[in-house]
Amino acid sequence: MALPTCVLDAKKIDFGVQVTGYLCCAEFQPPCMIGVVFSETRGRFEDGKTIRTSQIERVVELQGYQLFETYNGSRYVICHWWHENGALPEINMIH
Predict the structure, then answer these.
(1) pLDDT of 13
(2) Which of 18, 33, 81, 85 gives 20 to 30 Å between its CA and that of 61?
(3) Residue 91: pLDDT above 90?
């Protein structure tokens, strides 16, 4: 499976930490993230699979991307948010 352009762009960035995977169509579903994963380094998920992360412990903004660190020690870069598909409004528009 070819990687989406947004993933290819994110993979060019040096985040200074080991990235576990890159999420597209990401949605924050407290306390976890849901998204379509690509380039997952632990061998648990194939490209294009929808996953739910473990509990989010920390969020860091790096070079225009958000990096989510989980309870299990994984780090996911958000390449694309679900609301960017036009599927629902941005969260700040809802409140």
Answers:
(1) 97
(2) 85
(3) no
